[in-house]
Write a structure and sequence with these properties.
By secondary structure, the chain is mainly α. About 80% of the residues lie in helices and about 0% in strands. Helix 1 packs antiparallel against helix 2, helix 3 packs across helix 4 and helix 7 runs antiparallel to helix 8. GO terms for molecular function: chromate transmembrane transporter activity. It is a multi-pass membrane protein.
Length: about 180
């Protein structure tokens, strides 16, 4: 039953996540946490791990969540299920777009889809930031400053400035932040 649930849920994530791995984060988060496959804290850690390992973030996350729930076979099922809809859709769209790519209606639809993807990515960033920057997970709206983890905010700002100024490989920043995090916390 675990394998069927993994396939169905990750197939749905693959169907409803247009725009790539980052667009999948809100659905991955909601599904994995609500089903008890991982915790919110594990999800935040998983993003860092998935970003620092080779391959697309969504496949890396599906592999880990699948393994966590169903072992090696679960990781294979989750990984295949999350990419299968994109594969099928790519075959269909390639045929369709050959004929209608320049049509104004198709262009309008693509603009709307891009806006939705931006909203999904922003939501995922906000949710991960709340888990990462608050000592107790999600802070209260009116007393948000009381639970803030100021060390995490300072580390975030330093890494952000480093990325903006030096534009080095993200693995460098992730490694530095991991070392600093191990020392501070």
């Amino acid at each position: 039953m675990v394998y069927i649930n993994l396939f169905i849920e990750f197939f749905k994530i693959g169907i409803f996540s247009y725009g790539g791995g980052l667009a999948m984060l809100p659905l991955l988060q909601d599904t994995a946490i609500s089903r008890g496959w991982i915790t919110a804290s594990q999800f935040a850690d998983l993003i860092a791990i998935s970003e620092s390992t080779p391959g697309p973030i969504a496949i890396n996350m599906a592999t880990f969540i699948g393994f966590n729930s169903g072992g090696v076979f679960g990781s294979i099922i989750a990984s295949l299920a999350v990419v299968l809809p994109a594969f099928i859709l790519a075959l269909i769209l390639a045929k369709f777009l050959q004929h209608f790519n320049k049509h104004p209606m198709v262009q309008s639809v693509l603009i709307g889809v891009k806006a939705a993807v931006i909203g999904l990515v922003c939501t995922a960033v906000l949710q991960v930031a709340l888990v990462s920057l608050y000592q107790s997970g999600y802070g209260q709206l009116l007393t948000f400053y009381k639970d803030l983890d100021y060390k995490a905010i300072i580390l975030f700002i330093i890494m952000l400035l480093g990325v903006i100024k030096y534009r080095k490989n993200p693995i460098i920043y992730i490694s530095i932040a991991g070392i600093i995090g191990a020392i501070i916390w």
